[in-house]
Amino acid sequence: MVSKLSDNQRSLKLAPLLQDGGWKLQSERDVIHKSFSFANFNCAFAFMTAVALQAEKMDHHPEWFNVYNRVDITLSTHDCQGLSSRDIDLATHIDEAAGKYISQN
Q1: pLDDT digits (tens, 9 = 90+) for 20-56
Q2: What strands, in cross-sheet order, belong to the sheet with 70-75?
Q3: 22 close to 98: Cβ distance less than 8 angstroms
Q4: For residue 21, which of 94, 104, 102, 100 has the smallest C-alpha distance?
Q5: Cα 69 to the chain's mean position, in Å?
């Protein structure tokens, strides 16, 4: 069973994503959210495909919304009804993937 991030884990692992990575906590749910903007739909879709393949490997799937070149992603672990280390790992992968496709602008 996956467990929620402890206060210590939030300080060590979540804080860098919030401070430097552009992820934001949402007040109404224990989730993190980030918006990405790409040069065009092809770059946005390629990014989403890369994230989808990793999410499937991890068996941890994001909530997301796409319009043309914008992708909004929300991460939370439904099994523990909040943030877990799985969200941190997927957010890290998402940021790495975004760097590849945003640099193609």
Answers
A1: 889 999 989 999 999 999 999 999 999 999 999 999 9
A2: 24-25, 32-37, 70-75, 63-67
A3: no
A4: 94
A5: 17
